[in-house]
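Long-time lurker, first post.

We've been arguing in lab meeting about whether S-adenosylmethionine would sit comfortably in this protein at all. Half the group thinks yes, half thinks no, and nobody has a model to point at. So I'm putting the question to the forum: if I give you the sequence and the SMILES, can you give me back a predicted structure of the complex? Inputs are below. Any interpretation is welcome too.
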Amino acid sequence: MATILRDLSYRYQWFYDSISRLAALSVGGEAHFRQLALQGLTIHSDTKILDLCCGSGQATQFLVKSSQNVTGLDASPLSLKRAREHVPSASYVEAFAEEMPFADNQFDIVHTSVALHEMKPQQLRKIIQEVHRVLKLGGVFTLVDFHTPSNPIFWPGLSLFLLLFETETAWELLKTDLVGLLVETGFEVNKHILYAGGSLQVIQGRVDG
Ligand SMILES: C[S@@+](CC[C@H](N)C(=O)[O-])C[C@H]1O[C@@H](n2cnc3c(N)ncnc32)[C@H](O)[C@@H]1O
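Top reply:
Settle the argument with this. Predicted structure of the protein with S-adenosylmethionine, as tokens:
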């Protein structure tokens, strides 16, 4: 699945950003979209945040407005190069999310935005376990990603987007009980909110004792 548009969106930053902005109109625009997963979180200037699968810093740029202790992690050297140019105040690490080069209990918040839908099922499980490992006790995993629409009006738009830009893992995510996976891993899930007719979900899970 997916089309040449997917490659183009990763090759040309302006194209990726334009598509993101267009998609974000379904929730009131990009600035609002980028705040969705941060709602309700207390973030101080020293809150240690990991932006997991940070891409070119699309969400990182909003995280650094609240904290001076933001790390972006991504597997793509090109994305990280762009992130370093775009959001120089964060630190960056090139690594796979399923094998993070961090000690246990490091972060107050792990945030990930529209990235988990790129993972195969086993990889997804491993990543959630890794997130649990690197979060401090009481730390929060907050994510925003696709979800099966509850309002049928949103199906054509989501389907078209997935057909043009995504691969089978995104379709797989629609069938995945992410909340269940977090709970299985040991998170206490205290927020699961749907947006854009249910086609987007925000989940927040806390590491409890
Ligand atoms: C759709 S982009 C999302 C970028 C950004 N978070 C955003 O909100 O626009 C997905 C990102 O995940 C990264 N990625 C995919 N698989 C990964 C993995 N296993 N480990 C780390 N990064 C990964 C890709 O390189 C890409 O930058």
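For your lab meeting: The CA atoms of residues 114 and 123 lie 15 Å apart. The chain has a mean pLDDT of 95. Whichever side wins, do check it experimentally.
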